[in-house]
Each structure stands twice: as C-alpha cells, then as structure tokens.
Design brief:
This protein starts with a helix and ends in a 12-residue tail after the last strand. The strands form two sheets. The chain has a two-stranded antiparallel ribbon. It has a two-stranded antiparallel ribbon with strand order 2-3. It is of the alpha+beta class and 126 residues long. Helices cover 30% and strands 11% of the residues. It is globular. Strand 2 and strand 3 form a beta hairpin.
C-alpha cells in the first residue's frame, strides 16, 4: 500500500510538475517543465531508508545564506512523508525549539511539513 502511495506521489510530481527522472533523460522535457512552473523551484524527492541503529545527525535544512545567494535558491519548505510506523526511536527532532525540543514520531502515511528558512531567505536557526 505504501509503495503504491509513493509511486502515486512520484507520478503526480512527474505528470503535474514535470519533476522526476525523466527530466534528466530528456532535455526537452526539462525545458517544458521549467516553462510550465516558472518561478517555482524545488528539489527532486529523496528517499532515505534507515537500518536499525542508524540516524541522521542534527542539521539545518536551509542553505547557508551565502550559498543560497550564489544559487539564487533557498529551501523554503521541507516535506517528510513517513513510510513506516516506528515504535522505538526514529523521531524527527527539532532540538532547538522550546526547553526540551519537539519530536515527531513516524506513522505510516503521515507527513510532516516545516519551513527551514524565513521569508527573506535567511535560515531559521531555531
């Protein structure tokens, strides 16, 4: 079921926004997609599968402002789609929010959306 949902997401990204592997294979498709979504920037989806005991260390999703200026691009939103429910560990933690931080536990089919940069493009360092 989750695999079908992920495939549907990838199909939607490809069909509706022109985002996906076909852009790398066909320069004409990339130009058409760019024209269709002028002003919209995004990165290709990334799929991460953690083995037991693995973790992603604390980091910021926003690019450093100098790098964002160089690329003329800043990460404005991050969407995490959880493909598994995890009983122990596996939380997405926002360690700089509040006294004890904020943790979101993965639940299959749920999504977490957050905004790693401010409106002016500066990284939100919280």
């Amino acid at each position: 079921r989750v695999e079908g949902q992920l495939q549907q997401l990838m199909d939607d990204l490809s069909d509706k926004l022109g985002i996906g592997s076909s852009l790398h294979d066909d320069p004409g498709a990339a130009a058409t997609a760019a024209a269709a979504v002028e002003g919209l920037t995004c990165e290709l989806p990334q799929l991460v599968h953690y083995q037991p005991g693995q973790r992603y260390d604390c980091h910021e999703d926003a690019l450093p402002i100098a790098r964002a200026a160089e690329l003329n691009y800043q990460r404005r939103a991050t969407v995490l789609l959880y493909l598994n429910t995890v009983e122990n560990g596996g939380a997405t933690a926002f360690e700089r929010l509040g006294v004890s931080g904020l943790q979101v536990m993965p639940r299959c089919g749920s999504a977490l959306v957050f905004f790693p940069s401010l409106e002016d493009g500066q990284p939100d360092e919280r």
